[in-house]
Design a protein that fits this description.
Length: 162
């Protein structure tokens, strides 16, 4: 059996798989026997981690939450985006050298209607030293590039190896 902790999440039907009152906020315990994958709906205590009411989940969700998604440097972000064909080498060079927002990302940010939110998002991109997967902007940009949430997580994992 493999035990792990991972973040609280909401399923497609709107139901949540998440921690009981005894767990720290934002964490969840799960288990896999190698063929089936479970997330905990209720956990009696952290001391008796095997005693919970499991909810079977897909391997995709299990992998998504079992494997931590690390923050990545701006260099890693841009290199992975170029590697996946999301940005050109010139856009990456301009972003890293001149702090220019690539056109495709600029288009995504232009969809933000609130002027203050748009400015904040632009500053996050321009001044970023690191990119955090938990930042809502990461989800927004990833989805706009046609990625699923799982693929966005994988983008961050792959980028962290560069």
């Amino acid at each position: 059996m493999k035990y792990f902790t991972y973040d609280l999440f909401t399923q497609e039907d709107g139901s949540m798989i998440g921690p009981s009152q005894n767990l720290p906020t934002g964490s969840l315990t799960g288990i896999s026997d190698g063929s089936k994958y479970y997330g905990a709906a209720e956990i009696e205590s952290l001391d008796v981690i095997g005693q919970f009411n499991p909810v079977e989940i897909s391997k995709e969700l299990f992998d998504r939450y079992a494997i931590p998604v690390p923050p990545i440097s701006a260099r890693q972000f841009y290199m992975q985006a170029e590697k996946e064909g999301l940005l050109t080498k010139q856009e990456v060079s301009d972003a890293l050298t001149h702090k220019m927002i690539p056109v495709s990302i600029r288009t995504i940010l232009d969809s933000i209607t609130d002027a203050d939110q748009k400015f904040a998002a632009e500053m996050q991109i321009v001044a970023a030293v690191t990119f955090d997967r938990k930042n809502p902007l990461s989800e927004m940009i990833g989805l706009a590039f046609g990625k699923t949430t799982y693929q966005i997580d994988q983008f961050f994992r792959d980028a962290s190896t560069l």
